[in-house]
Write a structure and sequence with these properties.
Elements: E1 3-8, H1 18-26, E2 29-36, H2 38-41, H3 48-66, E3 73-76, H4 79-90, E4 94-98, H5 103-113, E5 118-121, H6 143-152, H7 193-205, H8 211-214, H9 227-231, H10 237-251, H11 257-279, H12 301-309, H13 315-327, H14 332-345, H15 350-360, H16 366-377, H17 392-399, H18 404-409, H19 429-434, H20 450-468
Parallel strand pairs: 1-2, 1-4, 2-3, 4-5
Length: 469
């Protein structure tokens, strides 16, 4: 009987899985396998929360396979050696996997393809990074023209259903799926395809209508909360795009279609950043813009520590950083605010923040995380101008007007009135006593003067630009 290996990487799902479908079409039985790669597991960029979410997702996928009479095979080691060994053990004539586009993944897959018959299938993105190009064949480096070409090139394709039958090879040794580190956030983000699909369906049927208006409000439940599920392929890119397009059709002419359009653009941003990393892999270690590669960063350790711990004295920044520490997730507007504060107010190298996010985010993705940090720092492709410095007080007042977000994650400020919630240092000493929040004791005083910090960072960037201009 023809046997194929289905090598699972960032596609922890059975529905709309083009690698699984190809294996089923070309073999009579398959072996689903996940390789625990020591290089990835031991990377300094890996975080315990994301590992826990991954392992919980593997348990969920294994349960789904068990319900169909099979199981997930787990092996630990160098992927090239493990897959070569499994091909020998099973007599498999084919290995199917979903293409990944990070620099490490591409190098790994080239090595694997030299020892086993590897076929890579689409699915991580709707369009592969080398398929959306300018007329001269080069990569886009500005989002808006990229998104126009992306949309012109995209015809709605209904996602593939979960296969009715998955004939699996039995009797192959499997290691146990790791159970730790423990994922204490399972109530907030239960791992697995079932939960991912439930969230996608609920969002596309209801809250996507108001996504355009509510997505920046940190105090409201206005986002899809799907990013961890997209990160590990518990929801496919095509499933997400299909849901957005179906919502656009449903809402056409209602005045609410902006919500679906805005969310679709967010999905396109995800693919855009994957394209950037694919075509310009150096962005993982240095600025995309050459003239901004050697900013004179202060990199003060005590400032960085206060930022990571959520003790900067700026409530919206501290709330966001504590949300990240507690939940492994952070609201997108909060990501921009905290990134701007670290880079622009504290003059700390954006790469320090990028790594901290990767070590703590459930949805930490090399391409999107790098793109977001370079955008905020003004060093990347399609970046915000370097002179755009977000004011954390004004951002808090605009996107958390009553301070509900701040109070949720900074309990020291629970009783501070709305008028002071985003600048509690303005309370008189008697008011601080009255509301149970003494600045400098119960809650830190601001570690920086925003106005002076803004002048400092603009001078640093301007000098660098003049020197290289």
């Amino acid at each position: 009987m023809k046997t194929a290996l289905w090598w699972i990487r960032r596609d922890l799902r059975l529905g709309d899985n083009q690698a699984l479908t190809a294996a089923l079409q070309n073999a009579e039985r398959i072996l689903p396998v996940f390789v625990l790669d020591p290089k990835l597991l031991a990377s300094g960029w890996v975080g315990e929360k994301r590992l826990a979410f991954l392992f919980a997702g593997l348990h969920a996928l294994d349960a789904d396979l068990h319900s169909r009479g099979g199981q997930l095979t787990i092996r630990r080691g160098n992927p090239e050696q493990i897959l070569e060994q499994l091909v020998h053990e099973t007599g498999a004539g084919m290995v199917y996997a979903e293409a990944d586009y990070s620099p490490y993944s591409r190098r790994r897959d080239l090595r694997v393809a030299q020892s086993v018959p590897l076929t890579l299938m689409p699915g991580l993105t709707v369009h592969a990074p080398d398929s959306i190009l300018k007329q001269d064949g080069t990569a886009y480096t500005v989002f808006t023209p990229y998104s126009r070409t992306w949309k012109r090139s995209t015809q709605a394709q209904k996602p593939l259903p979960i296969p009715a039958r998955i004939p699996m090879l039995e009797g192959v040794f499997s290691e146990a799926i790791p159970s730790g580190p423990q994922h204490s956030l399972a109530e907030l983000f239960p791992a697995g395809e079932t939960e991912g699909q439930r969230r996608l369906d609920l969002f596309a049927r209801s809250s996507i209508d108001e996504y355009h208006d509510k997505r920046d409000r940190m105090d409201l439940d206005g986002t899809s909360s799907l990013s961890p599920y997209l990160r590990f392929g518990m929801v496919s890119a095509r499933q997400a795009v299909w849901a957005a397009q179906q919502a656009q059709a449903r809402l056409a002419g209602s005045g609410l279609e902006n919500g679906a359009e805005t969310w679709l653009n967010e999905l396109i941003w995800r693919e855009f950043y994957m394209d950037i990393l694919y075509h310009f892999p150096y962005v993982r270690s240095e600025a995309f813009r050459p003239h901004l590669r050697n900013i004179p960063w202060r990199n003060a350790g005590e400032d960085f520590g206060a930022w990571t711990e959520g003790c900067t004295g700026f409530p919206v920044v501290d709330a966001a950083m504590r949300q990240l520490a507690q939940t492994g997730w952070m609201h997108n507007r909060a990501r921009m605010i905290t990134a701007s504060f670290l880079v622009k107010d504290l003059l700390v190298d954006w790469r320090c923040g990028e790594k901290h996010f990767m070590q703590n985010l459930l949805d930490g993705d090399p391409a999107a995380n790098n793109g977001g940090w370079q955008w905020t720092a003004g060093t990347g492709t399609d970046a915000a101008p370097y002179f755009r410095v977000l004011n954390p007080v004004l951002q808090g007042k605009k996107f958390d007007p009553q301070g509900a977000y701040v109070r949720r994650y900074v309990p020291e400020l629970a009783h501070v009135p709305d008028e002071f919630i985003h600048e509690p240092w303005k309370m008189a000493r008697e008011q601080q006593k009255q509301f149970g929040c003494m600045i400098g004791m119960d809650y830190p005083a601001p570690i920086v003067d925003h106005a002076l910090a803004r002048q400092r960072v603009l001078h640093a960037y301007k000098q660098k630009e003049l020197k290289n201009g």
